[in-house]
Amino acid sequence: MSAAADRGVPSARPGLWQRLRYRVRIALREPTTLIGILAALLFAYLIIVPILSLLVDAGRVQFGDERRIGTEPGAWTFYYISRALFSPVAGNLFWAPLVNTLSVAFGAIGISLAIGGPLAWLVSRTDMFARRWFATALIVPFMLPAWTFALAWTTLFKNRSVGGQLGWFEALGLTPPDWLAYGQVPITIILALNYIPFFILLFGNALRRFDSQLEDSARMLGARSSTVALKIIGPMMLPALMSAIILAFAKCIGEFGVPYVLGLPVNYDLLATGLYRSISSRQTGVAAVLAAAIMLIGIVSLLIDARLVREARKFVTVGNKGAMARQSALGPLRIPATAFAALIFLISVGLPLLTLTLSTVMRVPANFALSNFTLDYWIGTNLETVALRTGILLSPALWSAAFNTLTIVGTASICSGLLGLLVGYVVVRTPLRPLAVFLRQVTFLPYLVPGIAFAAAYLSLFAVQRGPIPALYGTAAILMLALVADQMPYASRAGISAMMQLGKDPEEAAQVSGAGWFRRMVSIVVPIQKGALVTGILLPFISGIKGLSLFVILAVPATDVLTTYSLRLVDYNYTQAANAVVLIIAAIAYFGTLLAQKLTKTNLADGLGS
Amino acid sequence: MPAITLYGARKNYGGSAPDAVSDLDLVIDDGEFMCLLGPSGCGKTTTLRMVAGLEHLSGGRIAVGERVVDCVTSGTFVSPEKRGMGLVFQSYALWPHMTIERNTDFGLRLRKVPRAERQERVEKVMKTLGIEKYRDRYPSQLSGGQQQRVALARMLAVNPDVLLLDEPLSNLDARLRLEMRAELKRLHEEFKTTIVFVTHDQWEAMTLATSIAVMSEGALQQVGTPNDIYERPANRFVAEFVGSPPINIVEMGEGSTNPLAVSARAYFARHHPRLADIGSIGMRPESVAFALDEKAIPDGAFSEKAVVSGVLPTGGSWIIELAAQGAKLFLTTHQPPAISDGDAGWFHIRPETLHVFDAEGVRHAAADTQLRGEVGSTARRATRKVPA
To answer: Which position among A198, A404, A598, B72 has the lowest Cβ density within 10 Å, counted as fewest Cβ atoms?
Structure first.
């Protein structure tokens, strides 16, 4: 007799009201949901409101513009949009920077693809000499701030068009032309060098995962190498390649430091520097339009990327088990290939860092006599300069900037690390699905908004008092808030994936053993996630230290950090000191990244994919 | 006294998905070793998690003893940490940052058991499971079998009223699994705990359980002793799921024209003319015999010509594949068979070992009465007496 067929009356289904009451009771049984709701409110305020405020700024009359526009401040207007897009000055304000940005982006991506693509293949699928060493060495530029290389470039190529210490070539009597010293060419080259690691990481990863058996099957069926490359490998690699291109593009759109150093001297504006100009000349409305444009480009390109990544996932299932990567033998090309990789390493890492380092210990550029070398710029005293009369390491300004960096970036990183883990916990555990979806998406939003536009949004929201929140401009608080919000995509991703990996079991085991929510957090979740938490703090810290775009808009001299300090030194033409500070930042970023990788036993590429 | 009662328990994960568990009525008695058995995705783990409180219900209610722990209609929900149960996960879910000893005494610390007593109990349970020498190691330093023991020890230490086991042996190799099976049985006798055990392995269920609940697609198919389940499967699903090699089924429905069905129909018409509405018959491989000589067929047995198409030794026993009237039959024997491929003869089976199902695939009660001379069913029913 079947027990299923055995049942007489079907049990009464609970009514809607009863179901609702039951669900609410279960949702509120633990603080997870409550914490989630609080976090959702916090992020709505830190992320969505500034962006909305910025968008509103683009459509309302700003203070100081009422005369020109002829209406009260706060009234709705198309003035800024038409001024930025259609007026006689629109060319300078918007279209020229847009065209410049796009041509730099496409140029840089073209070059880095042409170099990075073959390199990715060399380090992942061939028997090149020192392959493993190159795999790490070639992605070093990714760990360093891009404008480090811009400073190295000026150290080499700066000419007499701009005041200050000469570049090495000029000092040797070979005057570099303006087009080589500033503007489109150097910006494109430096960004290209900076994006090569993108291709090595993303494209190389896809190549590594590519199952050789797929190739072999085609070969067994009689396909020639060229056919295999064209019909099998090519189509399957396309999503990864497109993804790398688009990520590089999105990064390029918001790039500020490089065009600031290399573009401004010859008035070569990109969108990001144009935005900076508008803000410093107090054209808030136009700045808002520019920021919105940057945001729009960023969002569109990342949406395309998300689509491609999904596309790529479809392929992943094809060759998951028993995948094996076979290396191609390069044969006689082994030495030239290795030389090519070495050359790229030299150009993208060795030369810039060497130049910068040497420049900090040389009095006069490009004079390699022993008497020209000195450690004065690091540790000297009573120098013959107007300001900064001591070596940089003895200058109180450096230490106060370092202290500021440590406190501001440090606090923000600790906050975002903790918040990230909390968001991860709520997203994975809450029974309220809409809350999980909202938190996941809102914390990811800043990823779509380039830092400079985000900074502009913060400026727009917190420059004046609003309700109970006082005007925060000029305080360390606005920097910390902006940093936290800006870092949330990484922190929350890290938190979510850590919680996903942990799975429910260990926590449920504790729950069945009788541990309540708080006890489980303290005894189980946090101790197990220690590593993830440390990384969740360390990675934002590194990116905060090299970050420039947020600080350049939101920092004031009282909240000077290492990056803004070095930029000011550049502006004042204290070349050696500026380069020294940049080297310090680069060293912190590099060793911090290594530490983070060691702690998590992961490599950088994993955090890049989506 | 029932330890656990599920009454119309239902779980739906939302959307248009079918119920993961639908209207489940099940009583698990105090001290019982109950196995939830079924193919993957049948809702057995969901049922276990609902009992533990790790999943909440979409309808119905669950009571532990006299106390309702989960009921949608009255809005009652007792948190897992307050249900006093133990749960051993398939993944073991040991806490990687704690030593074996800390893993084991975690529950006792939570219950604020005095230090001396705590140590004594941990000592005892670790000794019982043979893990006392690993007390200062971390889970990652233990093998799968040792981790499994720690997971068990951790739950046994708090002496729970009910111990829930979610496929705890599936990650072990065959030999260890056998050892742990014996150990579980011994522990059940020693600690007298009610155990609910989820598995998809029928041998595990057969060897361990005092009763088995077979589930399929979220619905309970049959509850009974291991013998009941094997000897008197309540329906086609249970008959076909339990047993290896699987039971031989002959479809007998209206219009079934395969020669074996025709011959079976003729057999029933001659020997048991009053039996109507036969949908299919099942023959356990060990009940089927093969004879080269027609005279060896006992009286009243169902038999038909067959040709040997394969002899597969499995070590100690043999599986013989027969082609009978175009149908394929398996039989098992422990005697070394003196036959080889291509031998022609007869298969035969005694009527009382036949399993007869009606057109819906439900066990044919009248056939049991006629063929076996039994009345009614011994399959235990779910009780409806649930405390309000």
So the answer is: A598
Q: What is the ipTM, given to two decimal places?
A: 0.80
Provide the residue ranges of all domains of chain A, joining segments of one domain with +: 78-324+331-374
- For the stretch B54-93, pLDDT in tens is 988 999 999 998 899 999 888 889 988 888 889 999 888 8
Secondary structure of residue B193 in the 3-state scheme: coil
pLDDT at residue A318 in the model: 45
Q: What residues have CB less than 8 Å from A43, skipping those under 6 apart?
A: A439, A442, A443, A485, A488
Question: According to the model, what pLDDT value does residue A314 have?
Answer: 58
Residues B85 and B195 in one domain: yes
B37 and B152, same domain (yes or no)? yes
How much is the pLDDT for A12? 59
In chain B, alpha helices (H): 44-52, 100-110, 115-129, 144-156, 174-191, 202-208, 226-231, 236-241, 259-271, 365-372
CB A497 within 8 A of CB A455: no
Q: Which residue has the tokens 């490599």?
A: A603
Tell me if residue B71 falls in helix, strand or coil.
strand
CB contact under 8 A, A19 and B82: no
Closest Cβ–Cβ partner in A12, A13, A515 for B81: A515
Max CA separation in chain A (angstroms): 103
Is B273 in the same domain as B129?
A: no
pLDDT tens digits along A18-46 = 888 888 888 777 788 889 999 999 999 99
Decide if pLDDT at B380 tops 60. Answer: no
Residue with tokens 């002959």: B250
Boundary residue ending a domain (B208, B240, B272): B240
Q: Which of B224, B240, B256 is the last residue of a domain?
A: B240
DSSP designation for A393? G
B131-167 pLDDT, tens digit per residue, is 999 999 999 999 988 998 999 899 889 888 899 999 9
Kindly list the residues from chain B whose CB atom is less than 8 angstroms away from the CB atom of residue A503. Answer: 91, 93
Whether the CB of A64 is below 8 Å from some CB of chain B: the reply is no
Q: How far are the Cα atoms of A211, A503, A528 from residue A417, in angstroms, in the given order?
A: 36, 20, 15
The residue with greater pLDDT, A285 or A602, is: A285
Span B181-193, mean pLDDT? Answer: 87
Q: What residues form DSSP beta bridges with B195?
A: B33, B163
Q: Which CATH number is B183's domain given? A: 3.40.50.300
Structural domains of chain B, count: 2
Rounded to a whole number of angstroms, the distance between the first and last alpha carbons of chain A is 54
A460, pLDDT greater than 60 = yes
The half-sphere exposure of A535 on its side-chain side, counting CA atoms within 13 A, is: 24
Q: Does A12 touch chain B (CB under 8 A)?
A: yes
Its sign, for the CA torsion A286, A291, A296, A297, is positive
Q: Are B221 and B214 in contact (CB under 8 A)?
A: yes
Least confident of A314-318, A474-478, B90-94: A314-318
CA-nearest of A11, A25, A29, A51 to A511 is A29
Expressed as residue numbers, the domain containing B223 is: 2-240
Higher pLDDT pick, A432 / A335: A335
Instruction: Please indicate whether, in this complex, the C-beta atoms of A2 and B222 are within 8 angstroms of each other.
Output: yes
Question: Is residue A420 exposed (0-12), middle (13-18) or buried (19+ Cβ within 10 Å)?
Answer: buried
- Under 8 Å between Cβ of A486 and A554: no
Which CATH architecture best describes the domain A78-324+331-374?
Answer: Orthogonal Bundle (1.10)
Do B61 and B179 fall within a single domain?
A: yes
B153 and B295 share one domain: no
CA end-to-end span of chain B, whole Å?
A: 16
Nearest-CA distance from A319 to chain B in Å? Answer: 25
B76 in the same domain as B154: yes
Confidence of residue B329 (pLDDT cuts 50, 70, 90): very high
pLDDT, residue A326, reads 67
